[in-house]
Design a protein that fits this description.
The chain is mainly beta. It has 1 helix and 10 strands. A hairpin with a 1-residue loop joins strand 6 and strand 7. The longest helix is centred in the last third of the chain and has 7 residues, at 98-104.
Length: 144
Amino acid sequence: MSTITAAGYYQQAVSDGAGEPAFTRHDWVCDVRSAGDKVKIGRLAAGNRLDVANCELIANGSQAAMNVDVCVDVDANTLFNDVALTAATFARSASTAYQLGETLGVDYEKDRDIYLLINSGAATAPAGGKLTLKLAQYPVPKSS
């Protein structure tokens, strides 16, 4: 089990207005991965809450067949659960993990990693294969 960092991990923007969401797109150009591998793809910024209703996982239609989770900080915090992607097929999945947004709450001290957990597949990496996480998050001011 290995962990890599996708180039999209570093494309972080946050909103400066409380309650105003920031939308970012984080790309992973697919490569060969084994079951249990993790691909760090984005971050939930310190002082921000997930806007789960506006998060999406997009497969560009050139990816290998694979099955993935999208997790925040630890495997148990699943934003997308068991997404089955068919080889060479465009797919757009919306998250329904609304409870996770509440459970995670806001951490004012540190950013939290968001990563793809490869459950199966990804044994081949066709040219041009890419997964994109559309991440939506918004700042929450500390209460006095």
